[in-house]
Amino acid sequence: MNAVAKVDKNAPEVEMEAPAQPATAPVAVAPPVQEPASPPKKKRRIGRLLLMFVLPAALVIGGGYVWVTGGRYQETENANLQQAKVSIASDTAGRIVQVAISDHQMVKQGDLLFTIDPEPYRIALAQADAAVAGARLNVEQLRAAYSQSTAQEKSASSEVDYAQSQYDRAADLAQKGINAKSSLDEARNDLDKAKQQVTVAQQGIISAKAALGGNPDIETDKHPTVMAALAARDKAAYDLAQTTVKAPADGVISQASSFKVGQFVGSGTPLFSLVETNDTWIDANFKETQLTNMKPGQKAEIVVDTYPGKTFEATVKAIGAGTGAEFSLLPAQNATGNWVKVTQRIPVRLELTDPDAKMALRTGMSASVTVDTGVARGFPAIFGHATAGEAAQ
């Protein structure tokens, strides 16, 4: 009898493994197919050889050509734009009563900047006018004194003639015994007095003439005293005019933020600055090796960092007299054992030729300068045998 297996429902389930598959028959593998032998790589070798030799040769030739034909344009970024800076000061001392400008304001030549209290200078001018009138009156008095001395000299001369005739008559009578000797002595004394009066009158004429500058007919305003009074009057008028200070040129006001009404200023004391916009130039510091063919009059191009896409035309105006180190406060002393050669820089001044560009530029701006020297290096320079004449050609 077949036994019936009882299954316990509470027993845990056991996973049944799948029955093993019957083994399959081995598959026959075909033998590998042999590829045909590749041809020799001659073409690749030729290409590599060309790449190894032709490309460096082309680079050398191209670089040599660029170097030989280069050197015409000398460039530097060590350049700054400069404008004239004028220190504004008053020629007269006084208190400020009017200020017509502010910091960073544009002004034109002749515009009012400020005004100093003019009242003290008006009073001084009135005093100078009075002094001129007094000097002219004094000259007229000197001229009258000269005329008086001349009249006195004529009167004294007449007295001499009369005293001489009286003396001659007394001498004749005394010789005939008619007149006493005392009468002759009295007549002689009167003659001597008359002659002395003539001498005094002549000295008065000389003194009056000297007071008139040696010329009795001199013009009143040509007399030294009047001329001195007129000069003092002109000085007073000049001081009064200087109480109104005007702009000496077109430009921009700078450092005037603390300049206010009521401030007392002294004569010649700098108050603020005026940067002239019509006087603009470029100071470029080139290496000494870049100045071989550079000379005044050559054309140049300026690129200011503020306007990177704009080019300004300029002209070389002058080349500095020496390197920057030569004009420093403590020039370098190279007479030592540890001397090292350092390429020096020499300032070159360039003048802007575009008048419209000057108004858009400000002093101190950084710039890049390119100067067209018109002379390339050339083939002789490769061997170091280029002469100044060849370079000029």
Number of strands: 12
Which sequence of SSEs, written as H and E, runs from N to C? HEEEEHHHEEEEEEEEH
Category from helices, strands and their pairing: alpha+beta
Tally of separate helices: 5
Summed over residues and divided by their number, the pLDDT gives a mean of: 79
Task: Tell me the Rg in angstroms.
Answer: 55 Å
The fraction of residues in strands falls at: 15-25%
Describe this structure in words.
The chain is 36% helix and 22% strand. Helix 2 (119-176) runs antiparallel to helix 3 and helix 2 packs antiparallel against helix 4 (224-241). The protein has helices at 42-69, 119-176, 181-211, 224-241, 388-392, and strands at 73-89, 94-99, 106-107, 112-116, 244-246, 251-254, 264-265, 270-287, 299-304, 312-319, 345-352, 366-372. Residues 1-25 and 381-393 have low confidence and may be disordered. The longest helix is centred in the middle third of the chain and has 58 residues, at 119-176. The strands form two sheets. Strands 1-8-11-10-9-12 form a six-stranded antiparallel beta barrel. A four-stranded antiparallel beta sheet has the order 5-4-2-7, with no helix packed on it. It contains five helices and twelve strands. Strand 9 and strand 10 form a beta hairpin. The protein is elongated, with a radius of gyration of 55 Å. The chain has 393 residues and is of the alpha+beta class.
